[in-house]
């Protein structure tokens, strides 16, 4: 039997149940697959992300549009290829694709003498993302680009070298590639007991998360540097913490207030324990792979890659 | 209520039911969506196509591999891009992708002085294709290409111009873009009464199918000519009829014997009528958009496109 538990609107976790040899119910295997919930049902990402993302589009969308509109000629020959890393499904993915395409067209329109190139937009996310839903929405109206999808983790290579001109990543880079090993080790001071988030003020735990997250970000920029054509751009937006805030302070009261989803997630786990679906000990093996980077950590990864020049880097508090 | 009827292993049709204002059951809307059945359940394409496609891979796969291995340098710069038009889901799509990639690598290995390029393989099919299943299988092992998907109909444009080097289409081009209007018109001699296939010997009906199918094929080659880089190749394999066989003879006794799935499909419709799910009249509105092209019709479309040179064209009877 598979039980689908909605742990926060838009996210899905699967718990598998079975029976032991005496017929008693027991937890057979818990898949730690955590992803945006597909489809268009009540708890789907598609139905629960509009307000959040709409705000993002309003606040930072025009920055991206301006940036693209000032890029000049994007390729010597061939189409302009855009890749959205961590696109998820739902209307938001399409809105960002439309924004990129219209900005590219405006750019060439301004140059007048140069004809507008064709555009190929790659929607990229983990293979478990609901691409079927995304493609259904995609065909509902004609769009000014050739659509394609690239399934895979943005912590690895996804495209041939120098084949992308514009890379975007919207509210995705706080997802880590894995949970730090010490966070799962009961004998370590970084052990995340009784919680699913890095939401305490324990410096050991925060350091362990920080180490993995910084490695992931360096990896992200290294792979994008290889995939991007020289002169291409990366435009990214992710959950972050304030400037000069220590890693262990990333989930500050201010953040919790702005992001009540974190609290709901903890509540859902408590309900699962109360229902006897999981034990408190099992809770300790489950952790959400999210880390809020600081401006300094982002700068560090970009400097280490030695392939990018920072054009704009800011912390905004108005989009949550 | 939605009833999923397995009308032949690997194919799926949806029938929607409801109640009229007096509470009697009635057919609300029949979606004429006909596609390969997704997932990996009993009736899925994935579980029911192995033997059929395995045979295809053995018999014509080596032709394609040889052809690719003799192509020389495929691009001046950048990756080699392969597109599979009508890929469906399941292991078959991956086997053809692997075959193309290994043939490209062998080609460059033979040339010795030229380093092998990176490969990007596009899986392309209708947006209703089960790409989620395909992507799940894709990640099970590391593959020698960057995988991507392009959702859409191969009767239209799917890629930027000159961006593909190798186009393949395996057992897909017998699918038409639509059913001829006269076939749905009760007053026309081409009306397909009591059947779901073009399986009679009625010349009017066959001519109507032939007209749409020839237009579709010309459209397929025109779009591929635009998408392919000069020097690129198309390798296609589809259900066809024998040389010099008239359109109305395409579903000959020999074909029926080799393709018993057609008969099972008719049987399934008869069962739906017997169960009262649909009426005989409703059967007349449903037709399978399949036409078996002749060698002459394929030659005609290629000649009309004026963009391709035929390197090899043959009818084989040994793969069914």
From TrEMBL, chains A, B:
GO BP term, pick one: methylation
The entry's keywords: Magnesium, Metal-binding
Sections of the chain in a coiled coil: none
Any GO MF annotation of the entry: metal ion binding
Official protein name in the record: Jasmonate O-methyltransferase
Organism listed in the record: Physcomitrium patens (Spreading-leaved earth moss)
Gene this chain is encoded by: LOC112279743
